[in-house]
Amino acid sequence: MGFIWFWLVAVMIVGYVVLDGFDLGVGVLHLFLVRTETERRSTLASIGPVWDGNEVWLLAGGGTLYFAFPLLYASAFSGFYLPLMIVLWLLILRGVSLELRNHIDVGVWRALLDGLFGLASALLTIFFGAALANVLRGVPLQADGYFFLPLWTNWQPGPRPGILDWYTVIGGLVALTALTLHGALWLTIKISGDLAERARSIVTPLWLGLVALTAVSLAATIAVRPASLYNYFNYPITFIVPAGVVASLAAVWLFNRAAQPVKAFLSSSLYLFFMLAGACWSLYPTLLPATTGSANDITLSRAISGPHTLAVGLVWWSFGMALAVCYIVFVYSRFHGKVDLGVSGH
Amino acid sequence: MTAELIHRLHFAFTITFHYLFPQLTMGLALLIVVLKSVAIRTGSEEWDRAARFWGRIFAINFVFGVVTGIPMEFEFGTNWARFSRLSGGVIGQPLAMEGVFSFFLESAFLGLFLYGEKRISKLMHWFSAVMVFLGSWISGFFIIVTDAWMQHPVAFDRLPNGQFEVLSFWQLLLNPWALLQYAHNMTGAVITGSFVMAAVGAFFLLEGRLQNYGRIFLKVGVIAGVISSILIIFPTGDMHGKYVARNQPAAIAAMEGQFKTESGAGMVLIGQPNEETGLIDNPIVVNDALSFLIYGTTKAEVKGLDQIPQDQWPTALPLLFYAYHIMAGLGTWFALLMIVAAFLLWRGRLYSARWAQWALLLSFPLPYIANTAGWMTAELGRQPWLIYGLMRTSEGYSNTVSASNGLFTLLGFMGLYALLGLLFTVLIYREISNGPEPKSAAAIHAN
Hints:
The complex is a heterodimer.
Chain A: H1 2-33, H2 37-45, H3 51-68, H4 70-79, H5 81-100, H6 107-137, H7 166-190, H8 194-224, H9 230-234, H10 240-257, H11 261-283, E1 286-288, E2 298-299, H12 300-303, H13 307-334
Antiparallel strand pairs in A: 1-2
Helix pairs in contact in A: 1-3, 1-6, 1-7, 1-11, 3-4, 5-6, 6-7, 7-8, 7-11, 8-10, 10-11
Chain B: H1 3-19, H2 22-42, H3 45-78, H4 81-115, H5 122-151, E1 156-158, E2 164-166, H6 169-173, H7 176-207, H8 211-247, H9 249-256, E3 262-263, E4 267-274, E5 279-286, H10 289-295, E6 301-302, H11 317-346, H12 354-362, H13 366-382, E7 385-387, E8 391-392, H14 403-434, H15 441-446
Antiparallel strand pairs in B: 1-2, 3-6, 4-5, 7-8
Helix pairs in contact in B: 1-3, 1-14, 2-3, 2-5, 2-7, 3-4, 3-14, 4-5, 5-7, 7-8, 7-12, 7-13, 8-9, 8-11, 9-13, 11-13
C-alpha cells in the first residue's frame, strides 16, 4: 500500500508540473516575447480557460499527501514554513493579476498586472525547483520528525543548510529553464503568426541552457547526496529513467526543428516526467532525508497513514481522479487548436 | 504574544477573509442556474444577459476565493503541524476529496461557462452553470465535513503511534453534525447571494437606469431571500442549535451567557457577560425562552457554565457571546425585511417602493457579517478544544514555527489582503456600474 501511495502522490506532482508548468512558463515568457496588446491577449487567452484547473493539481496533490503521509505533510510544511508562505503570496498575486487584467482597461494598471504576473510566475518556478532540491539534499530533521529551515545560512548544503544554497539554486534554475521552454512549446501549439515564430526560435537557446543545467544538476545531486544512486545500482533496469531524460530532451529539439509543436510539447512533458520520476526513485523509500543522520529520515513506513484510511482512500481517489481526467480532457478538447480572440469572449 | 495566539490569529484572519468570497459564489451559483434556466425556457435575451452579468461578478469572486483558499489547505501543515500529524488520516480525506471531486469539476466547467459560450451549445452552456453550482456546493460539503469532525469527532480509532484512523468512511461523511451544519451554512450562503442580487437590483431601480434588469434582480433576489431567510431560522438554525446544546453544553452556555444551571432559563437578547461576577450586565431577557427553544418546554433545566470545569470553558467567552448574538440578531432582521419585501413583490408594489429598495440596498453587507459571526460562534464555541474533547488547541499548533516567524507572515497576509480588498472593491464597483448590457463595438475594441 505504501508503494502505491508513494507513486500516486508522485503522479499528482507530475500532473501539476506538466500542466501548471506550461502556464507558469507562458507567464515568464510573455514579458519578453510579446510586442502588441493583441499578442498579449492571445498569449493569455491560451492559458485563460485552463490555468485554474492546472493549479488544482497542486491542491489535490497537497490533500493526497496530507491524508496518505500526515507526518511528512506536517513536518515538511512547518519546516519549509517561510518559503511556502512566499509561494502562497506569489500564487495569490499571480492568479489575481492574470484574471483581473481583463477587467481593467487602464493601460498603466494593465502593465503593472502583466509585470506582476510574469515576475510571480518566474519566482514560483524557481521556488518549486529549489523546493525539490531541498528534498533531494535533505533537511536537518530532529528525532521527533520536525525541523525548521531559515531562508538561507551560508549557502552551503552542509548539515545546517538554508532553503537556498548553491545546490538548491541550481534546482531553481533548472525548473525556471525547463518550464519556460515548456511554455514556449505550448505557445507554438496555440498561437499563430509572428509570435509563434518568435516562440519557436527562443526554444533553441532555452534548450541549450536546459541541457547544460540538467547535466550540472545531475552531477551536483550525486555529489551532494551519493545515496541517490543506490536504487539505480540495485535495480540497473531503472537506468532507463535517466536514459528517458536524455531521449526526451533530444526529441524536444528534433520535433521543434521539424515544426511539429504538439510532439515537441509532449516530449517536454516526458522530460519533466522522467526528471521527477528519477528524483522520486532516487529517494524511495525515503520521503525526506535528514542531514542529521539517516536515523532521522522520514521514511515511507514511518509516515504512512493507517491501513483502513489508505484502503478507503484508494477507492474514492481512483474514482475521483478518473472523473477529473474526463473533465480535463473535455475542456482541453473544447479549447483545442489555435487561439482565436473572436470566439473567446469573456 | 504567544506562538499559540499567533497561529490562531493567522488561521482566523486568513479564513475570515477567504470566506467573504465563497459565501457569495456558492449562493450566486444557485441563482445563476435560476437565471440561466429561465433564459433557456423563455428564450429571453434579457435573462441570458443577466446570467452573464452575474457570471462576471461570480468570476471575480471565484478568483479571489481560489487564491485566498489555497493558503487554507497549506496552513493545516504550516501552522498546525502537530494537529495535522495526528489527524491527517481522517480530515486529510475530505480535504483531498474537495480537490479531487470538486475543484477539478468547478474549474473545468467555469472555464467553459466563461470562455466557451461560443464554442458550445446553449444547453451545454446551461449544463456548465449547473456543474459550477454542483462543484461549489460539493466543495462546501467537504469543508463542513472537515470542520464537523473537529467539532464532533466520529468513526475514528487511534493507532499505536497516536494517529487518528478512519473507521467508517460513510460515518465520517454522514456525521450528523456535518449534515446539520451544511444545511445551515449553505442557506447562509444563499442569503448572501440573494441580498447582493437584490441590492444591485435596488441600486439600478433607485438610480433609474437599467430598470428591466433591476426588476429581474430584485425579483429573483427577494424570492430566494425570503425562502433562505426563513430556512436559516427554521428548521436549519433550530436543529443545529439543539444539536450543539446536546453535544457541546459548554459552547451553548457561553453563547447564551448562561452562567448558572436553572430550569425555566431565560434568553438574553442583549447584555455583556461578566466572567468575574458570573452575571450578564445590563441584560434584556425573555423569560423561559431558552428552555423552550432547546427542550420544547418552558420549565426544562438548562445546564450552565457552573457545571463545567473552568478549564473547559470557551477561551474567548465574551467574543463568542457577541458573535452568536450578532448572528441571531441579523438573522431576525433578514427574515423581517425579506418577508416585507416579498409581500410588496406579491402585491406588485416593490418596484415603486423606494423605501424598501433603500432598505435592501443598505442591507447587503449584513449577511457577510452574519455568516462571519456564525463561523466565529462555531469555532470559538469549540475552544479550548481543537478536536472536541480529544485534543486541545494548545497541543496542535506548529511549535517549531516561532511566534516571530508566525507574526512575520501574518503581517504579510494582512498587507496583501488589504491590497486585494481594495482591488476587489474597485473591480466589483466597475462591473456593477457597467451593468448587464453588452458593450458597444467601440468599447470592446478599446478593451
